[in-house]
Amino acid sequence: MRKVFIVTYDICHDKRLRQTYQLMRAYGDHLQYSVFRCELDDKEKVELIMKLTDIINKKEDQVLFFSLGSAGSKTEQKIESLGVPYVERNKSAIVI
After folding, report:
1. Following DSSP, what letter does each residue of the chain receive, concatenated?
2. Dihedral sign of CA atoms 78, 28, 9, 62 in order
3. CATH code for 3-72?
4. Per-domain residue ranges of the chain
5. Which strands make up the sheet holding 62-70, listed edge to edge?
6. Are 32 and 84 within 8 A, CB to CB?
7. In the prediction, which pLDDT does 82 show?
8. Interval 53-85: pLDDT, tens
9. DSSP letters of 39-60?
10. Per DSSP, what are the bridge partners of residue 6?
11. Does the predicted model carry a pTM greater than 0.85?
């Protein structure tokens, strides 16, 4: 079962910050600076955590996972914003 997570991070070193951002782009939608929305199954979550563990400095950096429940559930659908409205991005493949 896929679950939805908001993943945020606070990385102290520029090189690790860039590496974390590049990794997160492969797993979710970039919402704001260091905030991603990710739909992950258990295997993908463990894989992402392992890869993040290889990048971050555990004494200086922080990554937080906020679970929003199952993908496709009514609670997952409710996103409220202040200011610029949140627009869900279309997920489509581009074949070149």
Report:
1. --EEEEEEEE-SSHHHHHHHHHHHHTTSEEEETTEEEEEE-HHHHHHHHHHHHHHS-TTT-EEEEEEEEETTSHHHH----SSSPP-PPP------
2. positive
3. 3.30.70.240
4. 3-72
5. 29-32, 35-40, 3-10, 62-70
6. no
7. 45
8. 999 998 899 999 988 888 877 665 556 554 567
9. EE-HHHHHHHHHHHHHHS-TTT
10. 37, 66
11. no
